[in-house]
Amino acid sequence: MTTTDTTACILCSRNCGLSVEIDDNRFKKIKGDKAHPFSQGYICQKAARLEHYQNHDDRLTTPLQRQSDGSFKPVSWDEALDDIAQRLVAIRDQHGGNAFAFLGGGGQGNHLGGAYSRQLLAAMKSYFSYNSLGQEKTGDFWVNGRLFGEQTCHTTEDVEHADYVLFIGTNPFQAHGIPNARDTLKHIKKDPGRTMVVVDPRRTETAKMADIHLQLRPGTDAYLMSAMLAIIVTEGLHDRDFLAKHCRGFDQVEKALRAIPIADYAARADVPLATLEEVARGFANADSACVRIDLGIQQTLNTTLNGYLEKLLYLVTGNFGKPGGNNLHTMLLPILGDTDERNPKYRRTAHHRMFPIAGIYPPNILPDEILHQGEDRIRAVFVDSANPLVTWADTRAYEKAFASLELSVVIDVTMTETARAAHYVLPASSQFEKWEATGFNLEFPVNGFHLRHPLFLPKEGTLPEPEIYTRLLEKMGVLPERFPKLERLARLEAKRGQYLATLAALGTLLARNRQWIPHAASIVYRTIGKTLPDNAAASAPLLALTHVYAQLHYKAVKRAGHQGNRLTLGSNLFQAILKGRSGITLSEHRFTDIWSLIAHNDRRVHLAIPEMLDELAGLTASITDQAYPFVLMAGERRSYNANQIYRDPAWRKVDPHGAMRMHPEDAERLGIENGDKALCRSARDSIEVVVEVDDSVRTGMVTLPHGFGMRYKDSAPIGPELNRLTDSQHCDPLSRTPFHKHVPVQIEKSSTAGAV
Ligand code: SF4
């Protein structure tokens, strides 16, 4: 029998609402959910293929334990968790918290489990949390910390309402990241009063829709943006009133920008000076303008400086805190922390002495921290919803590091490459078999949240993450299994759904047992969670978060239509989330609220960042490498690549090999034809690729997509294993984010050449 239901896509940070038809425990039809408060029926082609994630032949159905010969033996959950708990406790007690690291903890759509997985770090007395944000966005978070006062201050862009939109290092047509990307791009393109500018070394799908495309030389974004800023200040186009009222430190920034050799920097970026001036003037003079950036500038040379310059573009022109500009926003799930490295309480790593940014350590240093010769090396890791042996820089370094670990545990729905290298593999229920949510709710002024309910029964033998972590903590002796008083109170209050007495009792319990404070998620899971309808126990930690959110943003939550007073609004918001099967609106802010979201005491933006001004002054490094004459932009987003959860290759309608795009002139010079195989060699390693001759790339550059290099049903890796080419040392000196968009490589026709 066919039934209909709603959920959300889990393939990118937009998490569009889905309306689905289900038959025989499978997705039969998937389309956009018109009732979703943000996506309103919009989806792209990738979501329609989610059956390839939910049902495929590599799903895990039992815990696996590695044997001495390298094979895996199925074991029971108790056997696995008993042994893991005992070994974790032994490592912690013998070597202390530095011996443990947690890796991953949520993909694009499974962040609810993060409330539970973080408890393991506390149980192990460790701070070392590594995840993919640490190889993408931490440079940006570091700059936010200095500009706005805390690394939790995160910005968004009002592309939908801007008169002038600057896309730098991003291709929203394929990468999305903005509301209903393709519709939004079409609206801008059709409107003669609005301007779209794309800055990208490739003539992307978005660039083809743009009014102006600045096809800069790869890795020169900092030159281009600083030249734009220099044009703005030398021509007096900056917003003096805004800067005087809302910012500090502009004098130092202006001095640095006036020293920029504009024509020289335009030449370095290889863009026409006149066009750059036209863009700088158009952006500064527009009634509203915003900048949208992505990995194109966050994973290339001058990563952190790039983040600073793109923010200066909208700040110096006063396009902040207004419709059509860039703005701060609120978050319900605290996916970012604030760990300014000037505060000595944040622990540095043993080998690189690296500090966390927004609570996250960078994956680029982890192999060295594991292979470090010393008592304080990392000996055990827990990997959750991540595949570092494929997706983090320097696969070879990761393979060597994992082989040296005393204990590695992987939680996943499928047998990933990292799982194959682990001591234990624990099978999780899929994202459509449990309660889940994304923390990527980054909207302003109206923000929302979508708690997804299970569509399918969990596959037999699997467990959801909240149950796995809670059982593990209990077996480690960190938590008791029962909290009878809280359970009793929660049962009494369940009918009214307010849980105020239970939360008060929880507060008292934690005040008396401070060692349990980091484990509040599992305590509410085992108590309040048991009383929630439809087995929604996993969502219990949201109750505390909605209370905090309602306190902080009381008027905005009320404006969104939620009822209640200071005491009850949080609980009512929680109930609305539980019932809102298509997602809900959390809050409606006013643009004037922006200033209260700035964390500096003076509520101003502190523009002058000494480290960034120093890097700007020293922007002279050569970016060519004679031995490796091509620049590989690794990790391109295309129509049929996605994050690693699509492992069945049958999901792709096109581009089965993840072809390498190369300009026709380069291909001709190397004697390569469309469909030929070629060797792509970096200083680290080489891989064989299939070539797609394509004039959308510049000469001297090639591109490869992410989302390949995985095995399926014991096959060889399918498509390019990008991180065999990347080197963990090739990264930003401050944030340590990798330069994936600027990998020096050689290309030659493969000796096994032949059309495919
Ligand atoms: S835009 Fe992103 S979230 Fe929306 S359907 Fe496409 S991949 Fe899924």
Question: Roughly what fraction of the amino acids lie in strands?
Answer: 15-25%
CATH topology title of the domain at 155-328: Dimethylsulfoxide Reductase, domain 2
User: Can you tell me the CATH class of the domain at 155-328?
Assistant: Alpha Beta
Poorly predicted segments: none
* Tally of alpha and pi helices: 29
**What is the level-2 CATH architecture name of the domain at 155-328?**
3-Layer(aba) Sandwich
Helix content: 25-40%
Main pleated sheet: 7 strands, mixed
C-alpha geometry? globular
Distance between the termini: 43 Å
Determine the structural class based on helices, strands and strand pairing: alpha/beta
Ligands, ions, cofactors? iron/sulfur cluster
Strand arrangement, major sheet: 5-4-17-16-15-6-7
Summarize the topology.
Elements: E1 3-8, E2 17-23, E3 26-32, H1 51-54, E4 64-66, E5 72-74, H2 77-95, E6 100-104, H3 114-123, E7 129-130, H4 138-148, E8 155-157, E9 164-168, H5 172-175, H6 181-190, E10 195-199, H7 205-209, E11 212-214, H8 221-234, H9 240-246, E12 247-248, H10 250-258, H11 262-269, H12 273-285, E13 289-293, H13 295-298, H14 303-316, E14 326-328, H15 366-371, E15 380-384, H16 388-391, H17 395-403, E16 407-412, H18 417-420, E17 424-427, E18 436-437, E19 446-449, E20 451-452, H19 465-475, H20 484-493, H21 500-512, H22 520-526, H23 528-531, H24 541-552, H25 554-559, H26 569-579, E21 584-588, H27 594-597, E22 605-606, H28 610-617, E23 630-636, E24 660-662, H29 664-669, E25 677-681, E26 686-693, E27 701-705, E28 743-749
Parallel strand pairs: 6-7, 6-15, 9-10, 9-13, 10-11, 12-22, 15-16, 16-17, 23-27, 24-26
Antiparallel strand pairs: 1-2, 2-3, 4-5, 4-17, 8-14, 18-20, 19-21, 23-28, 24-27, 25-26, 25-28
Bound molecules: iron/sulfur cluster.
